[in-house]
Design goal:
By secondary structure, the chain is an all-alpha fold. 70% of the residues lie in helices and 0% in strands. It is built from 11 helices and no strands. The N and C termini lie far apart (49 Å). It binds protoporphyrin IX containing FE (2 copies). One protoporphyrin IX containing FE binds at residues 48, 149, 199-200, 203-204, 206-207, 210, 212, 229, 232-233, 236, 270, 273-274, 277-278, 280-281, 285, 290, 293-294, 297, 300.
């Protein structure tokens, strides 16, 4: 018997007869989904702390820290403690990922979406640990460090989808209707996703050309930092433009409230991130602001994924705001 129909209090699926507008899975699943997102954003900040304190080679070897010690030694000093501390956080991330998989294990047949996303997040950890190791082996090659950062952004997108899917109601899970966003809005939402990704990728190239290499002797990618910074802000401007148009359309057509609030959230994050970006640029990249910009990039990635997910999620019968408006107008006429 499926856990959905058994209706036991411990079941990860809320009984089918419960309110169809409430989330279809229980609080534990939702809490671990949020924890997965928080942990994946958190390690970007701590990874950034490694780079920005020039501790990238605090442990000069991988998988051991030094040629003959798994852990950091007193000779490695504060940089060793910072780099090794970040390696240890991998286990915190792994614990959260295992807990997430365990929480959806019983419902893996009926919620394959949640199960697959949880497995992908778990698989991302050894992949990142290996890439982190290659980062060390290559003496902090900027392209490898950039790749390590981008893989984390992909994991943040997956974790955001997981959170969104964990909040779907039984009605939404079962719905076969079209997407929430109108036909005009959908390409615009796609553009928001692409422009956010482009801003992130070009930002990583700016970092690779800049002063914060993770170690004083590490190589740089050789681009002119001012030129790549100018290129980095091009998709940012386009993103702001696309956001203004999208907001105009959702307000004009009284689109679903969830789509409106997800777009507003993205707008706020983009504005804060752009202010941090310009301030750090003109202040010659103080590490605290660069760290905040990395946090901002993670939040922006999550906010953009949330917008795209919301716009492309299926409508529930009777909740289409455009149809509701048309219906109300027709009944007034009648
Ligand atoms: C609003 C959208 C923006 C996004 C999504 C974004 C994203 C990023 C990302 C992902 C990085 C690389 C972080 C890393 O690899 O550690 C970065 C670096 C950078 N960004 Fe942005 N950024 C945005 C706006 C701006 C703006 C408006 C400026 C203004 C000049 C700016 C200036 C910089 C600079 C100077 C760096 C290099 C920092 C370093 O040396 O590490 N960014 N950005
Ligand atoms: C044993 C495993 C790991 C090792 C050896 C490792 C190694 C490193 C090193 C050396 C840096 C600093 C790069 C620099 O100084 O330029 C770093 C940064 C970073 N790490 Fe890891 N890492 C590991 C695991 C992970 C995991 C599991 C994640 C995420 C899932 C992750 C995400 C990051 C991020 C986002 C950064 C910041 C990159 C940037 O500043 O652009 N790391 N890591």
């Amino acid at each position: 018997m499926s856990s959905a129909s058994s209706g036991r209090a411990s079941s990860p699926v809320v009984p089918a007869q419960a309110d169809g507008t409430k989330p279809a899975v229980n609080k534990t699943v939702r809490a671990f989904a949020v924890a997965s997102l928080v942990a994946n954003i958190g390690i970007v900040v701590t990874g950034g702390a490694v780079r920005l304190t020039a501790s990238g080679l605090g442990c000069p070897e991988w998988p051991l820290c030094t040629p003959d010690s798994l852990t950091t030694t007193p000779e490695m000093g504060i940089h060793g403690i910072i780099e090794f501390g970040n390696r240890l956080l991998t286990f915190v991330l792994a614990a959260v990922a295992f807990a997430m998989v365990y929480s959806v294990w019983k419902i893996r047949a009926e919620r394959r979406d949640l199960f697959k996303l949880s497995i992908a997040l778990l698989a991302g950890i050894p992949a990142q640990a290996l890439l982190g190791g290659i980062t060390v082996w290559t003496g902090l090659n900027p392209w490898i460090v950039g790749g390590h950062f981008i893989v984390s952004m992909v994991l943040i997108v997956l974790a955001t989808i997981l959170v969104n899917r964990a909040w779907l109601s039984p009605q939404q899970v079962a719905s076969t209707n079209g997407p929430l966003a109108t036909r005009t809005l959908r390409p615009l939402l796609g553009a928001l996703g692409v422009l956010s990704a482009l801003s992130v990728v070009l930002g990583v190239i700016v970092t690779g050309s800049g002063p914060h290499a993770g170690d004083h002797g590490a190589a740089r990618n050789g681009f002119d930092p001012d030129l790549v910074t100018r290129l980095h802000v091009v998709p940012v401007y386009l993103l702001v433009f696309a956001l203004v148009v999208a907001l105009y359309l959702v307000y004009r057509h009284a689109a679903d409230g969830r789509l409106r609030s997800s777009l507003l959230l993205l707008t706020v994050v983009v504005i804060i991130q752009a202010v941090i970006g310009y301030t750090q640029h003109f202040m010659h990249l103080p590490i605290l602001l660069v760290g905040l910009h990395m946090l901002g990039a993670s939040l922006l990635t999550a906010a953009a994924a949330h917008v795209v997910f919301t716009g492309f999620s299926r409508q529930v019968p009777g909740t289409d705001p455009v149809a509701r408006q048309a219906g109300a107008a027709a009944s007034r006429r009648g």
